[in-house]
Design brief:
Largest sheet: 10 strands, parallel
Number of helices: 11
Strand content: 5-15%
CATH class: Alpha Beta
CATH architecture: Alpha-Beta Barrel
Low-confidence stretches: none
Mean pLDDT: 96
Oligomer: single chain
Bound molecules: S-adenosylmethionine, 6-(5-methyl-2-OXO-imidazolidin-4-yl)-hexanoic acid, iron/sulfur cluster
Number of domains: 1
Radius of gyration: 19 Å
Length: 328
């Protein structure tokens, strides 16, 4: 039997699946995963913060918001050469995707965006998939990114529409949806997911997944982040109610069932996750991780530790396309 790919999931249906016994849910997700993907292959993506801190938005989880004092040093836009070197290193360390993040509310035309366009070209030349996350975009900016060789644009919905207004007030859920629409219109893939552990209800988690699953096409990748509670942000006290790893596994399994072909990425929060929990998440359909000791500003497991985990599980990494690397 072939599992149909649907774009009409309701939050209620997702909630029903959420409450299945964990082993039933994981088994179902694993079946879908094996039907659509190479179940023992994991993509490694490296993140780089190309412009850090001082962001005008007030996302309650984010250490880079100018609204909160988190002690994070600000850093202006990096040079193209630094980014190129970092991408080459990422490739050498086993990544096949490189994602550049800027703490911007929105992209502004001018020399800084021109520099980002050059960065996209430089990373694309290394043979890696290129992803950017720069805040809101207009049509022309999306088109320029596509022409420069961008593979995908990351713009998360983070949670349900209902919960969203409790964690961010400087922009609306609809603003996010509008940018995602422009990204799709420009022919770019979307990378869109969310965060759990912010104090949201299970209904909010299911609402987020249902919304993502109604996108046509589904997001090319779905990052599932667990909140990294950072001191100085309004969500710092969430560290007292950490996410149960089984809840994360449920999110991964649901994302896999709802979006059979998407890359489901185990994203922020992996440092707190045991090897066993990660293995269960891979069984449930996770097939991508962020690789490298840093996410954007917070810590992530060592590359060697991840390599050992994949080796011990008998899993392999996606190999980037062949290219003769420029000498640096
Ligand atoms: N400014 C851009 C934006 O918001 O789209 C790009 C950068 S932003 C840091 C990218 C994503 O990182 C957010 O949408 C959020 O899902 C995730 N994120 C940020 N801080 C986090 C934290 N403390 N824990 C987990 N995920 C986080
Ligand atoms: C995503 O969903 N998670 C990544 C990436 N997309 C850009 C970012 C995680 C950031 C975690 C907090 C930090 O390191 O600053
Ligand atoms: Fe952080 Fe992005 Fe929100 Fe800015 S828009 S505060 S960088 S999550």
């Amino acid at each position: 039997m072939t599992t149909p790919i649907r774009h009409n999931w309701t939050a209620k249906e997702v909630l029903e699946l959420y409450h299945l016994p964990l082993t039933d849910l994981v088994f179902r997700a694993a079946q879908v995963h094996r039907e659509f993907n190479r179940a023992n292959e994991v993509q490694r993506a490296t993140l780089l913060s190309i412009k850090t801190g001082g962001c005008q938005e007030n996302c309650s989880y984010c250490p880079q918001s100018a609204h909160y004092d988190t002690g994070l040093p600000r850093q202006s836009l990096m040079s193209v050469d630094t980014v190129r070197e970092s991408a080459i290193r990422a490739r050498e360390n086993g990544s096949d995707r490189f994602c550049m993040g800027a703490a911007w509310r929105q992209v502004k035309d001018g020399p800084e965006f021109d520099q980002v366009i050059e960065m996209v070209k430089a990373v694309s030349e290394t043979g890696l998939e290129v992803c950017c996350t720069l805040g809101m975009l207009n049509d022309d900016q999306a088109r320029r990114l596509k022409e420069a060789g961008l593979t995908a644009y990351n713009h998360n919905l983070d949670s349900s529409e209902e919960f969203y207004s409790k964690i961010i007030t400087t922009r609306k859920y609809q603003d996010r949806l509008d940018t995602l629409e422009r990204v799709r219109k420009a022919g770019l893939s979307t990378c869109c997911g969310g965060i759990i552990g912010m104090g949201e209800a299970i209904e909010d988690r299911c609402g987020l997944l249902a919304k993502l699953a109604c996108f046509e096409p589904h997001p090319d990748s779905v990052p599932i982040n667990t909140l990294v509670p950072v001191e100085g942000t309004p969500l710092e006290n969430q560290k007292q109610s950490p996410v149960d790893p089984f809840d994360l596994v449920r999110m991964v399994a649901l994302a896999r069932i709802l979006m059979p072909r998407s890359r489901v990425r185990l994203s922020a929060g992996r440092l707190q996750l045991s090897r066993e929990a990660q293995a269960l998440a891979f069984l449930a359909g996770a097939n991508s991780i962020f690789s490298g000791e840093k996410l954007l500003t917070t810590s992530n497991p060592d590359v060697d530790e991840d390599q050992k985990l994949l080796d011990d599980l008998g899993m392999t990494s996606v190999v980037p396309r062949e290219i003769s690397l420029p000498v640096v």
